[in-house]
Amino acid sequence: MSDKMAVLINGEAVLEYDRSVALTEQQRLSLEKMEHKMDGGFNLAGELISSPDKNQRLQFIALNLVHALVNEENEALIAASSSYLAENLPDLNQVKADNSKGQWLIDLVFDKEYQNQVKVSFSDL
Predict the structure, then answer these.
(1) 65-107, pLDDT tens digit by residue?
(2) Fewer Cβ neighbours under 10 Å: the N or C end of the chain?
């Protein structure tokens, strides 16, 4: 199990989560509140899910995380969503989101650890 979980959007790393940093009590309470709020149901891909199972909750959280990152909004939601995924899926290495075909496809990657990316600029050549 890797200490790192990365979120990549359209192939670019936009977030790295470090599992080795322990959550505070307040953060744990926030995750419990998220869990409790989801008990009441939610919309997932246009369908009302009144009694979500664990897989549906994880899908919902992953979609919300990607949406918040793409729109560069709600840092608290980004932090809570990434923590929720990392805590509930300890073997998750990467969340890959791609919308190059006009709709969001999200892939949870368990079998390949994230490797840091290096940007190379060719403008100086």
Answers:
(1) 999 999 987 898 999 999 999 999 999 999 999 998 888 899 9
(2) C
